């Protein structure tokens, strides 16, 4: 039997017990789902009329507008968080103590404050009439601080010898950071960066607090203002909008996987010239000083046989 780093491999009795627990747990989950579906059906939430509301042109247009608004806020927040993350990461790695302290204080402050409070404060204090920018700036501040820590970890993970070699070649600190350290940090931490972008996409749902018409705000309006047979379609609305969020996150994850695979296929490294081929050229080309292929003394005074 092979052993894991975290625990020993289960024996015969443990394997039987684990199978029993797995079967019991699966049966319990299936039973819970069945009870939930039956209760929803008894209350009329699964009636076809509850789902037919999404065939109305007005509701479809509302969903489309909310999706566009969500993507706008996410696009601004994604770009803003990445730019701010790079700046904060470079500042926190600075050799100047004041710059490093200011960046560290900024990161620790806004990582400690709940994101909802940051968004609401930006909206109330500065951008009451521009809810989209308030949402994008709040998301950029919080996620930029997180991305800064991710990039800083990636820079620190680069082997120290590469930095020393770059300095030995006469590169400035800016050149070392932009051409040696940061590209490798981004490539190494790309899965984590994309994961945080997925979090940023989901956090756009906090825009409903500041009355920004994103997906969650639209879902709340549809569910609370549309009656079907005397009931509000909360269940169908949650399922439809939840599916939209899942589709967006899966699309972003697929994009990240494609970028990562493309990066792995990229040609990297320094091409080393073939020394054997160069030697053959030198010995066969008289113009190159190799003396041709005929026997005779070469430049070193050794007679060729």
Overview of the molecule:
The structure is a single chain. The protein is an all-alpha fold. 71% of the residues lie in helices and 0% in strands. The protein has 12 helices and no strands. The protein has helices at 12-42, 48-52, 57-92, 97-112, 115-125, 131-157, 160-168, 173-188, 190-203, 215-225, 234-265, 275-284. Helix 3 (57-92) runs antiparallel to helix 10 and helix 7 packs antiparallel against helix 8 (173-188). The radius of gyration is 31 Å and the shape is globular. The model is unreliable at 268-273, 275-284 and 286-305 (pLDDT under 50).
In short:
The chain is an all-alpha fold and 305 residues long. It has 12 helices and no strands.
Shape: globular
Question: Unreliable segments (pLDDT under 50, ≥5 consecutive)?
Answer: 268-273, 275-284, 286-305
Tally of DSSP helical segments? 12
Q: What is the H-and-E element order?
A: HHHHHHHHHHHH
Tell me which oligomeric state these chains represent: single chain
Structural class: mainly alpha
Radius of gyration: 31 Å
In this structure, how is the largest beta sheet organized?
none
Mean pLDDT score, rounded?
82
Q: What is the distance, rounded to the nearest whole angstrom, between the alpha carbons of the first and last residues? A: 64 Å
Per DSSP E runs of 2 or more residues, the count of β-strands stands at 0
Helix coverage percent of residues?
over 70%
Strand content: under 5%
């Amino acid at each position: 039997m092979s052993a894991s780093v975290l625990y020993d491999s289960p024996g015969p009795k443990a394997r039987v017990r684990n199978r029993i627990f797995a079967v019991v747990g699966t049966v319990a989950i299936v039973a819970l789902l069945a009870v939930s579906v039956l209760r929803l059906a008894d209350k009329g939430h699964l009636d076809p009329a509850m789902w037919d509301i999404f065939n109305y042109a007005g509701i479809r247009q509302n969903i489309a507008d909310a999706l566009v608004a969500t993507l706008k806020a996410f696009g601004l927040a994604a770009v803003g968080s990445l730019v701010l993350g790079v700046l904060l990461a470079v500042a926190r790695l600075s050799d100047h103590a004041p710059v490093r302290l200011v960046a560290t204080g900024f990161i620790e402050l806004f990582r400690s404050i709940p994101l909802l409070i940051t968004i609401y404060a930006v909206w109330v204090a500065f951008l009451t009439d521009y809810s989209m920018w308030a949402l994008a700036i709040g998301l950029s501040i919080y996620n930029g601080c997180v991305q800064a820590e991710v990039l800083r970890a990636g820079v620190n993970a680069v082997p120290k010898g590469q930095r020393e070699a770059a300095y030995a070649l006469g590169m400035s600190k800016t050149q070392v950071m932009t051409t040696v350290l940061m590209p490798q940090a981004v490539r190494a931490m790309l899965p984590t960066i994309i994961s945080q972008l997925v979090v940023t996409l989901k956090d756009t749902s906090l825009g409903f607090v500041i009355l920004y018409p994103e997906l969650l705000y639209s879902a709340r309006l549809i569910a609370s203002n549309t009656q079907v047979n005397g009931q509000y379609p909360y269940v169908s609305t949650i399922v439809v909008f939840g599916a939209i969020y899942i589709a967006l996150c899966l699309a972003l994850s697929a994009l990240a996987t494609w970028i990562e695979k493309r990066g792995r296929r990229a040609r990297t490294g320094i091409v080393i010239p073939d020394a054997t081929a160069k030697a053959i050229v030198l010995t066969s080309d008289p113009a190159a000083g190799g003396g041709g292929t005929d026997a005779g003394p070469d430049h070193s005074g050794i007679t060729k046989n």
